[in-house]
Amino acid sequence: MDHNVPTYRRHFSTTLALHSDTSSGTAGTFTSPKPYVIPADEVLGDCDEPLLTPGASVHVLPVDKGSFVKRVFFLLGIIILVPSTYLMTASDYWMYKFRNVTAGPHVNASAKTTLQTNFFAAYGVFTNLPALATISVTIMFNHRIQQRLRNMISLCTVIVIFVMLTVFVKVDTDNWQYGFFMFIMATLLVLNVFGTWLQGGIFGLASLLPQEYIHSCVIGMSVGGVLSSTLQILAIVWHPHPTNSGLVYFGCGTALLIVGLLGFLAIQHVEFFKYYLKNPAASVQDIITYEDLGVDVPVILLFRRVWQEAISILVIFCVTQCVFPAVTVLVVSKDVHSGSAWSGRLFIPVCCYFLFNAADMSGRIGSSYAPLGEGKEKLVLLLSIVRVIFIPLFLLCNTEPHAHMPVIFDDVTYIVLITAFGFSNGYLFSSAMAQAPKKMESYLQEKTGAMMTGFVIAGLAIGAMLSVVVVRLL
Known about the structure:
By secondary structure, the chain is an all-alpha fold. The protein has helices spanning 40-44, 68-79, 82-89, 91-97, 114-141, 147-168, 177-208, 211-238, 242-267, 271-278, 284-287, 299-323, 347-369, 377-386, 390-395, 411-438, 442-472; strands at residues 12-15, 36-39. Helix 6 runs antiparallel to helix 9. The model is unreliable at 5-45 and 280-294 (pLDDT under 50).
């Protein structure tokens, strides 16, 4: 090998000769400096040669004033799951829409219709399969579309669909329940194509920034789940009728998406964000991009570097989607016929959605204080596989209907199970997701972030298909 030729990751060194270019600018105008790379032999040949020439300028890193960008990514973490979690949490509304209309306006929790029983299993399939196809395409072609444009298109489309869903809350669908069911499934398909595109775009951007920004986005995702379940509970308490509570609930979701859109537009003009978007960090790995080298890094090479984290994420979400919400939403209190609000309409929103999302958020926050960090990849993978034990345990809870499985566990046991299930989901996911981009050079981190999102979606898609089978086992 010719040792005079710079070799990537072998003997590359840099001189950060950042010069003011005044040849083409007017007086007093500073043109953005461009770092350049020279062979290590040329730098090391004369140790007395200064790295910065006398006329060089020092490049000062911009500061995230008031942690504004971090706060916006926290908000974006909340809204990127709105297309999937928000509709899923509205179980009270869906149970009303697909109730037995011949029995009157009230929902009978112990005598579910076919549409009620299978809604959330079908929901998982129509949500996650198109999402898997979308993320596979975006990993390969996202770089061809400017990030601001693709994220704006996806976010605006999600907002339009939410406005439409809000309008349909007050539409009487009792006479065409099967038609409305198929309409909702088709809407979910389109919604999650653009929602997944948005999710991959936001995670890709967060991967370009320092690690605490992607962690802020991950925490925002868990807060989004808690927020949606809390709003659902408040809407039920405030407006007892399912259509009134549904109108308030979907209206709040639409407003939240609009606020997220405004936040996304705002950070486009922040110097800190624009700096990291261009990715000029002071190391050779950051100065050289794969475009500069004329090499397009295949996804399989990225996977080989982070395969343990990727498989962990796939297993985590596959196990979760197998039973949540397809099985857990069918669990009813043993006192369901007592007539109390707690054991009736509030049991599922509180004990299923709120507890899971609160525990999930606690797990993600806990991983920042007691992380399974570098060198613990095998342990994370092992614990992710161990979570499979939750599937048969939930099948033994008091689900309605249940024709094949015995009921062994009471309400308290179910609450303990759903809490442990949620905490392990958040803790293990956050540990795996935070470690993967750190193993990559900065110019590969956006692509790695998008790839890891792909494994999230793949796990959800596989779990959604398995959930259809699991529900049949009840």
